[in-house]
Amino acid sequence: MGRQASESRLRRVLRWGLAVVIGLAGCSYSAWVLEFVLPVGVDPFTSFLSQLAERGAPFRGVFTTADTLTGAMLVVAAGGGLLLFPRRGYTTVGWVALGCFGAATIADAQAPLDPAAEVPAGESPLFPQLHQVHALTSTLAVFSIFIAMLAFTVAAFRYRQWPIVRHAGLWILVIGSVATAWLLIADNLPGDHGLGIAQRVQVGAMSLWLLALGAQVAAANRRATPPVGMVG
Q1: Rounded CA gap, 90 and 153, in Å?
Q2: Among positive and negative, which fits the CA dihedral 82, 83, 85, 87?
Q3: d(Cα 150, Cα 139) in Å, to the nearest integer?
Q4: So where does this one cross the membrane (predicted)?
Q5: C or N: which end of the chain has fewer Cβ atoms within 10 Å?
Q6: Does residue 129 carry a pLDDT above 90?
Q7: Rounded CA gap, 181 and 103, in Å?
Q8: How confident is the model at residue 151, as a pLDDT?
Q9: Better-predicted residue by pLDDT, 219 or 21
Q10: Integer Cα distance of 199 and 183 in angstroms
């Protein structure tokens, strides 16, 4: 009995740690808001966030470090989630996708934009990252986080657990999806159509969702005696 109680306490401590790590990742992924404080020299209406960390950018190290830390924390969080919670189909997909997002975010930071790269003839020069390897890592990151958001949301409804993800998380997912649709549609139209703003809304939604997930893990852990079965 004493051993079981000790193991239960350890698991609860580790889950609290997991919640903190996810929350910190959400905060560090919001480092782009520093563009409104630091003299970065980019227009949020006509620039992508990747340009904050492009080669030669004045504060590249700040944004690259933030993304790298975000990715590393989420890789750890994904592994922790798989180990600490019972596994169910949708939540397993969610944890794996979250880990993929972390790995892609690290790759994104290590493959910055090169402003000297040539833009293919006939393409808009406003958003050069669309024509570089960076576009691949960014696409993988966005795809992964949306798979995670969708999987955890479906799990929250299907298993009738995790109310924060089921309610606040759902609205954040909707906002992020609208911003993503804005990006995809406007990218194929002449002009910029506020693509920079659309991406900032999209990334902001991702950060908020990570904070919601961290809060949900903490709330579920506080009530879990024994551990909640859905969370895996």
Answers
A1: 9
A2: positive
A3: 16
A4: 16-42, 62-85, 92-113, 133-156, 168-185, 197-220
A5: N
A6: no
A7: 24
A8: 97
A9: 21
A10: 7
Lowest mean pLDDT among 3-17, 26-40, 54-68: 3-17
Query: How high does pLDDT run on average in the chain?
Result: 86
How many angstroms separate the Cα of 204 from the Cα of each of 28, 30, 88, 122?
A: 11, 7, 28, 31
Count helices and strands in the chain by DSSP H and E runs: 7, 0
Nearest to 36 by CA among 49, 22, 25: 49
Report d(CA 158, CA 93) in Å as an integer.
14
Query: Over the stretch 203-224, which tens digit does the pLDDT of each residue have?
Result: 999 999 999 999 999 988 665 4
Beta carbons of 181 and 195 less than 8 angstroms apart: no
Residues 148, 154: Cα–Cα separation, whole Å: 10
Buried b (16+ CB within 10 A) or exposed e, 122-134: eeeeebbbbbbeb
Degrees, nearest 5: CA angle 89-148-152: 55
Q: Please check whether residue 212 is in contact with residue 70, taking contact to mean a CB–CB distance below 8 angstroms.
A: no
Q: What is the pLDDT of residue 32?
A: 96
Give the range among 72-76, 81-85, 212-216 with minimum mean pLDDT: 81-85
Could you tell me the two tokens for 66? 């933030």
Q: Which of 129, 141, 132 is nearest to 180 (CA)?
A: 141
Residue whose entry in the numeric block shows the structure tokens 């406003």: 126
